Amino acid sequence: MKYLVLASLVLSLATSCGSKKENAKKNIADAPVSSYAESITVDELKEQLYYYASDEMEGRYTGEPGQKRAVEYLKSQYEKMGVSGGMTDGSYFQTIPESYFKRIENDSENVLAFIKGTEMPEEVLVLSAHLDHVGMEDGQVFNGADDDGSGTIALLEIAEAFKKAKDEGYGPKRSILFLHVTAEEIGLHGSRYYSENPVYPLENTIANLNIDMIGRIDPRLKDDPNYVYLIGSDMLSQDLHDMSEMAHKKYNSPLKLDYKYNGKEDPNRFYYRSDHYNFAKNDVPVIFYFNGTHEDYHRPSDTPDKIEYELYQDRIQLIFYTAWELANAEKRPALTVTD
Length: 339
Hints:
Elements: H1 2-23, H2 33-37, H3 42-52, H4 65-81, E1 84-85, E2 93-96, E3 108-115, E4 120-130, E5 136-137, E6 140-141, H5 145-167, E7 174-181, H6 189-196, E8 205-211, E9 227-231, H7 238-250, E10 256-258, H8 277-280, E11 286-290, H9 309-328
Helix pairs in contact: 3-5, 4-5, 5-9, 7-9
């Protein structure tokens, strides 16, 4: 009997040691980052965007049935990939009461998904995109493939890439919130509601990378399409701008970082016109990724067949690389001191 007990003890110790070794945290510096970026594929982007910007979604107008279908779709995709809800109880919807809106007769929802950080979980990187569009008019559906189906699906694909890394032992050091906001088209209300009712304190939010229209080409750049506009990267934090530039070079992105609209004096006022602004006005450093407007902007003709999918893929991969560097950096980007 004593030999049997001794053998069991030895086996137990060996199993325990093996288990600890198996579950030991991997060095994030050894992560095959490019392979995670390559999981963002043209085929998956097409499949998801063609559905999200289909007539079935009825233009995703805030509070309407199409918008409700859109949020349920997003929830189902996060559930499928195993990414938890971002509310404190693990659910996905931050409900915004109809009383918060003007001229909207129903409640609406932000969709939140969350990957918890392994070393600094209290610090949160927010990636955002608006899930709504302008609805229908005279029986025509405004599909909103570029605006902002492109940003919405980008968040899903980036989340999937981070989840793949986490499953292989390379979870991000900081937490990442994937925030799909409602009611952007009627006044940035979804992001404003989140900024006034943050699930994670804004002082712990290290940056916001906001994605709104990244699937098309600005007509003025049709002969030089390998670009993405960046807005706001240096307005609150030189560190954020420098980290963005570093990620661009480190991972050999084929894109030109174009700062044409990066300024508070830009006559188009793009800095103030998407959801990053509700973070920026609360001193959260931001980058707004954008392809510029085009002839189908806010028209029924903004359809998924007009997306430049390979360019769209390159832009999402760049954002993923930038998010990777921010989530795993030694220090969060510091606010730039101004007079």
